[in-house]
Amino acid sequence: MPDDRPNILFIMSDDHAAHAMSCYGSRINRTPNLDRIADGGMRFNHCYCTNSICTPSRAAILAGTYNHVNGVTTLATPMDNSLPTFPKMLREAGYRTALFGKWHLGQGAAHCPTGFDDWAVLPGQGYYHNPTFIFKGPDGGTRRTVPGYVTDIITDMCLDWLRHSRDPDTPFCLCYHHKAPHRPWYPDEKHAHLFLNETVPEPDTLLDDYADRAAAAGAAAMRVGVDMTPTDLKCEMPDAMDEADRRRWGYQRYIKDYLRVVQSVDDNVGRILDFLDAQGLADNTLVIYTSDQGFFLGDHGWYDKRFMYEESLKMPFILRYPREVQAGSVNNDIVLNVDFPALFLDLAGVPIPGHFQGRSFWPLLQGSTPPDWRQAMYYRYWMNQTDHNVGAHYGIRTHAHKLIYYYYDGCGQRGTDGRHCGGTRPVPSLADLEPEWELFDLEKDPYELKNVVNDPAYAGVAAELKDALHRLQADVGDTRYARDAD
Ligand code: CA
User: Fold this and answer.
1) Structure confidence at residue 423 (pLDDT)
2) Which terminus of the chain is less hemmed in, N or C, by CB atoms within 10 Å?
3) Distance (Å, rounded) from C-alpha 137 to C-alpha 131?
4) Is residue 92 part of a domain?
5) Distance 100 CA to ligand 1 centre (A)
6) Ligand 1 centroid – CA 110 distance (Å)
């Protein structure tokens, strides 16, 4: 009997915000190949990460647990590769599994990829041009430099594997994980001409003054054109510019390179989709495109992520599976990165382990939302101060509101509380700040510019959300900060 379980092509890029994809209504670029996935399947409008930073989000996706459970709370906490993960479970169930591209969960025998028949990954962040890869092998693998542009190379590796290493009688799960469009945004030469003589539209909040919010927003060191390096900008910083002009100038420098790098991702995803079509594999392959978190594209004057604000919290998530999912459909339920592995196992008919903290959203793909589907999600950013001077915080998002608690304490996690990096201007120490709350009315204030936590009109909402946050936090097994008392 042929094994007709579906193939899984799991495409994940790094730091690609949904608002730089035309299927999400981008005002600044077109992504025709990513749109092929959305047009042929389903677009999720409320997919969120539980910790908006690379390594922790990837661990949540692999292990199906929140970061306080899988231990990967910060960039300095590599994943223990003996943990059970979805690739291991699929492989045990007879899938062929492979991973090419970004890993970023540590190196060496204890942290290299496990659960894959084949893999080749970038060490750490890796390089855009002529990158070194670590290839599967003893003692954590062997290193070799590969000439070319990283997004093309990762795609070539996937195509080679699909052509030559896949068993046509066995379903596959291929993790196709781009480095792009992560900082420092070096485009391929063939995309260097894009946007050259254009002015890219600015986001409405580029000149945000951070008034009416917690101190965290104003303290963050991730302002475009201000907290950037000559490497980020590909030129020296001009003198004698006020901050508004500096942000506007820096935004154009930054966003054009970001979008050029995205263009290579879109082109290369198109190559893979063409291959699936040509091989007759498209009908029985679940194709997913997502990113490990969102990103600020000049929104609030920023680049980078980390905050629970929308642009950073929201993950793009589109999928195509013609057998089961109606083309051109849209979902507005709240789904999370910790849900992904449960979906994959469910689709493959593999039992979902009881310790998984996410839930399969297979019914959502079929247009049927279970009555008890979640109406709120829990978020926690554990790092404090170190990178970009962002304060540690946790919070809850419902469909209508978001409540955030900044506790400004690294809580002893590895890689926290150090000096901030990324800029040269003096920024306030977060260690001296008192914990504080932010509440946003997402319907009236979608850009999250006015904290209403102390507005008497929202007293009831604030109290309800604090209770809901603490319940959700307890439900997932996390611990409330000591000073977060009722
Ligand atoms: Ca990332």
Assistant:
1) 64
2) N
3) 18
4) yes
5) 16
6) 22
Residues 6+ apart with CB under 8 A from 361: 333, 335, 339, 342, 343
**Per-residue model confidence (pLDDT) at position 383:** 94
The DSSP line for 378-434 is: EEEE---STBTTPPPEEEEEESSEEEEEE----TT-TT-SS--BS--S----GGGPP
Distance (angstroms) between ligand 1 centre and the Cα of 402 equals 22
Domain count, the chain: 1
| Centroid of ligand 1 to alpha carbon of 54 (angstroms) | 4
Full residue range of the structural domain in which residue 260 is found: 7-192+253-375
| CB half-sphere exposure, 444, CA atoms < 13 A | 8
Alpha-carbon distance of 20 to 307, in angstroms, equals 18
Dist. CA 231–CA 213, nearest whole Å: 31
State the CATH number of the domain containing residue 100: 3.40.720.10
Residue type, 280: G
pLDDT at 422: 55
The token pair at 125 is: 């962040």
**Pairing between β-strand 401-406 and β-strand 393-398 as defined by DSSP bridges:** antiparallel
Structural domain contains residue 424 = no
Q: At what angle do helices 54-63 and 340-348 cross, to 10 degrees?
A: 30
Residue 135 is encoded by which pair of tokens?
Answer: 């290839």
Query: Of 19, 131, 22, 8, whose CA–CA distance to 61 is shortest?
Result: 8
CA 374 – CA 158 distance, rounded (Å): 35
- Rounded distance from Cα 325 to ligand 1 centre (Å): 28
Predicted local distance difference test score (pLDDT) of residue 238: 83
| pLDDT at residue 7, as a whole number | 98
Q: Which residues of the chain have pLDDT under 70?
A: 1, 419-423, 486
For residue 171, being part of any structural domain is answered with yes
From CA 142, how far away is CA 336, in angstroms rounded?
A: 34
Residue 83 burial (CB count, 10 A): 18
Taking the CA atoms of the chain, what radius of gyration do you get in angstroms?
22
Structure tokens at 383: 């790092």
Q: Residue type for 21, please?
A: M
The 3-state DSSP class for residue 86 equals helix
Residue 80 in domain = yes
| CA-based nearest residue to 312, from 38, 44, 48 | 48
Distance 483 CA to ligand 1 centre (A): 30
